[in-house]
Amino acid sequence: MTVAISPQGMPTASAHDSLSLVQDIDWAAVAPPLALAVAALVVLLADLFLAGPRKVWLAWISLGGLAAALVLLLPLNDGDTRATFCAPANPTTTPGCSYVVDDFTLVLQLVLIASAAVVVLLSMPMTAPRPWADERDVDSGVPGGEYHFLLLASATGAVTLVAARDLLTLVVALETLSLPAFALVGLRRDGRGGEAALKYFLMSVAATAVLLFGISLLYGATGTVYLDRVAAALTALDPRLETVAATGAALTLAGFAFKVAAVPFHFWVPDTYRGAPVPVAAYLSVVSKTAGFGGLLLVAGIALRPYAHVWGPALAVLAALTMTVGNLVAVRVATGSGDAVRLLAWSSIAQSGYVLVPFGTAAGEGADLSERLSASVAYLAVYAVMNLGAFAVVTAVGRDRPTGLLSDYRGLLRARPAPALAMAFFLLCLAGLPPGLMGLFAKVTVFQAVVAGGTGWLAVVMAVNVVIGLYYYLVWTALLFAPPVPGAPPAAEGTPEGPGTLGAAGALRVPMPFALAIAVAFVLGVVLSVAPQIVLQVLTVPGLLG
């Protein structure tokens, strides 16, 4: 059977459909993940021929592949939906497609690819012996070829995942995202990386087993793996199969809940982030989590839409637990050990709770489900900017103050004004306070979604958690402006002016890639604070999730 691709990329049936299974492939639609996969192979081969300072080219090749993927997104932004790898229609179903590029796909692919590019910038001093790295890089010596290959391979899975429209492709893309990430976590040399990678691996394997079991039950009950066909089958399901389908839906959602670090599936996050190199922690916090939420949005918003009245209340409870646990433990970390990366890990868990809030409105009355879920898409885009910015500053400060404690940031404004002001801005964005208005707009958008959905108790829980979160963000911000401890040397004292550094005493003294990553995140943060409609306009996209 032949499924032809129309000029707009949608599947169309032909007269001889019943005679052949041959179909065309829309290469333009699959070009972005294909570019990342090719770049990963090029990096792996180039590593064999580059040595010493020339290994810095591995990072530039990675950036080139990511830039090419971004460019290849432009032809797809023509307002039309493109689909490929489609199954033929039959008298009772429409053609089901495994890979679809629509507005939802483009928004998340843009966020994922751009975020991965920032992570590559943060990784340069860690993977290139010269000119960026020196004795202050606690994670230096990480093999550049393997690192960038694994990063690009994982990013390929993330970009593919948000375009997947059948359950099998979702699982394959999810594993392509996850398996290289295990190795990335374990690349750290000090011993903590191996422990963190093992914990991440074991818990991820268990979550994948649960996910696969859930998908098998859904397939057994509906007879299809395509998301839109699953939804259609669930609306006319044999009553004898309802328990099987409901169990499959619950297990499938639980598998994705692990990827987004929703409570009680969050235990791997703090230790994994703390044991991994900081750029890898940033990658897990933004790229891996955004892709996980993309999969959750697709499964819940398309395949399991007929069961929204069931999973809506369940995810509302998960959202409330995730916000509350994340914020309360973050407060404890801020007043206890004061570990900066661990604090960002718990903050990331709390932020996942905010993203989950629109899911909890599925059981309420009001606006259409896809309109409310699009608030989660907008929040993910804003979250990527402010969280990557915070991790970028933490990575830069860690070069001179490798203990990674909040006390390291005391008086940072006097020693390094530029990164201190940038960090203050990112923390205020995460808190939702001016001048970090993009964080405030994102929270208001989610709050409006929950109010429109008629889930009043969840709105109250979110409001209380936003107030709780103010504490640890403001504590960290206050340390930046506090006077240094008497007798302590300034952070920049004795720092050599080597290649890739900027300015004189008191100025920004970080490698150029770090400076560029911080600057990109800061500029995007300012732009989104002044013109939030750039991101929030995704809320007006008709049929964002079908």
From TrEMBL:
<feature type="transmembrane region" description="Helical">
    <location>
        <begin position="27"/>
        <end position="50"/>
    </location>
</feature>
<keyword id="KW-1133">Transmembrane helix</keyword>
<dbReference type="InterPro" id="IPR010096">
    <property type="entry name" value="NADH-Q_OxRdtase_suN/2"/>
</dbReference>
<dbReference type="InterPro" id="IPR001750">
    <property type="entry name" value="ND/Mrp_TM"/>
</dbReference>
<comment type="function">
    <text>NDH-1 shuttles electrons from NADH, via FMN and iron-sulfur (Fe-S) centers, to quinones in the respiratory chain. The immediate electron acceptor for the enzyme in this species is believed to be a menaquinone. Couples the redox reaction to proton translocation (for every two electrons transferred, four hydrogen ions are translocated across the cytoplasmic membrane), and thus conserves the redox energy in a proton gradient.</text>
</comment>
<feature type="transmembrane region" description="Helical">
    <location>
        <begin position="343"/>
        <end position="364"/>
    </location>
</feature>
<protein>
    <recommendedName>
        <fullName>NADH-quinone oxidoreductase subunit N</fullName>
        <ecNumber>7.1.1.-</ecNumber>
    </recommendedName>
</protein>
<keyword id="KW-0812">Transmembrane</keyword>
<keyword id="KW-1278">Translocase</keyword>
<feature type="transmembrane region" description="Helical">
    <location>
        <begin position="147"/>
        <end position="164"/>
    </location>
</feature>
<comment type="similarity">
    <text>Belongs to the complex I subunit 2 family.</text>
</comment>
<feature type="transmembrane region" description="Helical">
    <location>
        <begin position="244"/>
        <end position="268"/>
    </location>
</feature>
<feature type="transmembrane region" description="Helical">
    <location>
        <begin position="310"/>
        <end position="331"/>
    </location>
</feature>
<dbReference type="GO" id="GO:0008137">
    <property type="term" value="F:NADH dehydrogenase (ubiquinone) activity"/>
</dbReference>
<feature type="transmembrane region" description="Helical">
    <location>
        <begin position="106"/>
        <end position="126"/>
    </location>
</feature>
<comment type="subunit">
    <text>NDH-1 is composed of 14 different subunits. Subunits NuoA, H, J, K, L, M, N constitute the membrane sector of the complex.</text>
</comment>
<keyword id="KW-1003">Cell membrane</keyword>
<feature type="transmembrane region" description="Helical">
    <location>
        <begin position="280"/>
        <end position="304"/>
    </location>
</feature>
<dbReference type="GO" id="GO:0012505">
    <property type="term" value="C:endomembrane system"/>
</dbReference>
<dbReference type="GO" id="GO:0005886">
    <property type="term" value="C:plasma membrane"/>
</dbReference>
<feature type="domain" description="NADH:quinone oxidoreductase/Mrp antiporter transmembrane">
    <location>
        <begin position="164"/>
        <end position="468"/>
    </location>
</feature>
<feature type="transmembrane region" description="Helical">
    <location>
        <begin position="200"/>
        <end position="221"/>
    </location>
</feature>
<feature type="transmembrane region" description="Helical">
    <location>
        <begin position="418"/>
        <end position="442"/>
    </location>
</feature>
<keyword id="KW-0874">Quinone</keyword>
<feature type="transmembrane region" description="Helical">
    <location>
        <begin position="57"/>
        <end position="76"/>
    </location>
</feature>
<feature type="transmembrane region" description="Helical">
    <location>
        <begin position="376"/>
        <end position="397"/>
    </location>
</feature>
<dbReference type="GO" id="GO:0048038">
    <property type="term" value="F:quinone binding"/>
</dbReference>
<feature type="transmembrane region" description="Helical">
    <location>
        <begin position="514"/>
        <end position="536"/>
    </location>
</feature>
<feature type="transmembrane region" description="Helical">
    <location>
        <begin position="454"/>
        <end position="474"/>
    </location>
</feature>
<keyword id="KW-0813">Transport</keyword>
<feature type="transmembrane region" description="Helical">
    <location>
        <begin position="170"/>
        <end position="188"/>
    </location>
</feature>
<dbReference type="GO" id="GO:0042773">
    <property type="term" value="P:ATP synthesis coupled electron transport"/>
</dbReference>
<dbReference type="Pfam" id="PF00361">
    <property type="entry name" value="Proton_antipo_M"/>
</dbReference>
<keyword id="KW-0472">Membrane</keyword>
<dbReference type="GO" id="GO:0050136">
    <property type="term" value="F:NADH dehydrogenase (quinone) (non-electrogenic) activity"/>
</dbReference>
<keyword id="KW-0520">NAD</keyword>
